[in-house]
Amino acid sequence: MDTSGSMSYRGAGKTSKLDYASTLAASLSYLMLRQQDSVGLVTFADGVRRIIRPKTGMPHLKVICNELEMTKPENTTSIGESLDAVGQIMRKRGVFIIFSDLMDNAELVISKLRQLKKRRHEIVLYHVLDRDEISFPFDDTTVFKDLEDKSEIITDAFTLKHEYLRRIRHMVNTYKSALRKSGIDYLLADTSISPEINLRSFFTRRQSYNLWGDR
To answer: What's the longest Cα–Cα distance across the chain?
Structure first.
C-alpha cells in the first residue's frame, strides 16, 4: 500500500486516493481471510513503513483494518526501492496486490515488478488515480501544490491541459502494456467509480485462475 503524500489527494469527491485504496484492500482482505488464506499488509512511501506479517483467521482482519485506518499519507515516493525491500522480506511464493498512484519513475517500477514476477509471485497492480488526475478539469489560473515536497506553482491551467492529458495517457498506457506483457494484472482504479465495480473487475480479470494459485 502506497502511503506517500500524493495519495492524500482528493478532488471534487470526498474520498482520497489512500482512503479509496484502503477500502479495496480491506475488502479483499476480508474475502481472502474467509477463504482461509493468510493475509498481510506492507505500507510504504520513501521506503517500507510498516509490515504486518501474513496470518489466517478473521480476527486478523481487525489488525489490518486498524493499520489502514491509522496510516496517514506522508513523505515522497520510492516505489521501486520499497518493492525491492518487500521482495527480500516476503520470500515465500504468494500474491502481491499493490495499491499506488505510481508517481515515480515508470521504468524502475516496471523493472522491480518484473523481478517479483520472476520469483513466481502473482502480482496485481491497482493504479489508483483521482478523476481530476485523469480528466484535468482545470481551465483558469490555478495553484498546483506538490503533496510530497509541498512546492507550489501558479499557472494558467488551460495552457497545460493538452500536454498534461497526453502525458497521463502515456503513463497509463506504458504501465498497462508493459505489465500485461509480463503477466502482471494492471487495473486502473478511478476513485470516482464505486469500489464495488473495481473489485468486480479484479475477479473478472482473474476468473481463469485458481484465485490465489496457478493458471
So the answer is: 53
